[in-house]
Write a structure and sequence with these properties.
- With 282 residues, the protein is mostly helical.
- The chain is 70% helix and 0% strand.
- The chain has two domains: 202 residues, no CATH class; 62 residues.
- Helix 1 packs antiparallel against helix 9 and helix 3 runs antiparallel to helix 4.
- The N and C termini lie far apart (76 Å).
Length: 282
């Protein structure tokens, strides 16, 4: 059994200070993640406001183009023409920014602080058990029979120097744990160990999320755009212009695709060009 003096008040104070330092460092890392996430989230809001409607329009055109090319493909297949089936377009997804998961509550600290009290001797345990379980103290015959049986167990445990069994009997009889096993140094040490492990584990989670957020594409894009804007450029306007150009191209492509006759040779060529643009090999 670990002695109740396995940790002194001075050692407890030192360990508690170290735990506090670790918790404060964890707090600064959580705040750093929160600040970076707020920065990236604010940029995402700008990005979506500037480009979101254009991406939605482009997605809608791609969906209509797919319907038109699917119709041509099915008609060509019915006419015995070998054609590759169009691939359904993927909608533009909104950027998802990593969210820090909630942390578990800290382990509960033993009440009353450190209690420095040596464990009682085997004889002291025996005497306490006798005082609690002696048959002469029974209030009824039924209780007396119960106590006689219990005292037989107490005597056997004492004769066998079975300290753990005597402790179990006393705790079951309602004896205060400190009077049975001594001070709570074991519990305090276990609390310190679990608290340190909990903070270190949480710290690893936070730092991993911080690294992932720093490497997130939207964070990298945010940095690049902020740097470009510092030079007087307007990269979001350039990106919007490119999207408008693509929208114009898709509208023209849709206009042609909806008016092609499946029987014409142009239908197969139209499907082939669209597959090339989407990166689909023949």
């Amino acid at each position: 059994m670990m002695s109740s003096r396995a940790i002194t008040p001075h050692e407890l104070s030192r360990r508690r200070a170290q735990l506090g330092d670790l918790q404060r460092y964890l707090s600064t890392q959580e705040q750093e993640f929160g600040a970076l996430r707020d920065q990236v989230q604010a940029f995402v809001a700008r990005y979506v406001e500037a480009l979101g409607p254009l991406y939605m329009e482009l997605d809608a055109l791609e969906s209509q183009l797919f319907c038109a090319t699917q119709y041509l493909y099915e008609a060509l297949r019915r006419n015995g023409v070998d054609a590759r089936e169009p691939r359904a377009p993927q909608a533009t997804a909104l950027p998802q920014i990593p969210q820090l998961p909630m942390g578990a509550p800290p382990p509960a600290e033993p009440e009353g602080g450190l209690v420095e009290l040596a464990p009682p001797s085997l004889k002291q345990l025996y005497r306490r058990a006798a005082m609690r379980l002696h048959p002469d103290l029974a209030p009824s015959d039924a209780e007396r029979r119960h106590r006689e049986q219990a005292m037989m167990t107490v005597n056997e445990a004492y004769a066998a120097s079975d300290r753990r069994r005597l402790e179990t009997l006393l705790l079951a009889a309602g004896e205060h744990p400190v009077k049975v096993t001594g001070g709570n140094a074991d519990a305090v040490l276990e609390w310190l160990r679990r608290s340190e492990l909990a903070v270190q584990g949480r710290l690893r989670v936070v730092q991993a999320h911080l690294v992932a957020l720093a490497a997130h594409p939207m964070h990298q894009l945010c940095k690049a755009i902020v740097q470009a804007e510092a030079k007087g450029l307007d990269p979001l306007a350039v990106m919007a212009s490119r999207l408008r150009t693509q929208i114009g191209e898709r509208r023209q492509e849709l206009y042609i695709g909806q008016r092609l006759q499946p029987e014409s040779g142009m239908a197969q060529a139209f499907l082939h060009r669209r597959q090339e643009r989407l990166g689909i090999s023949s």
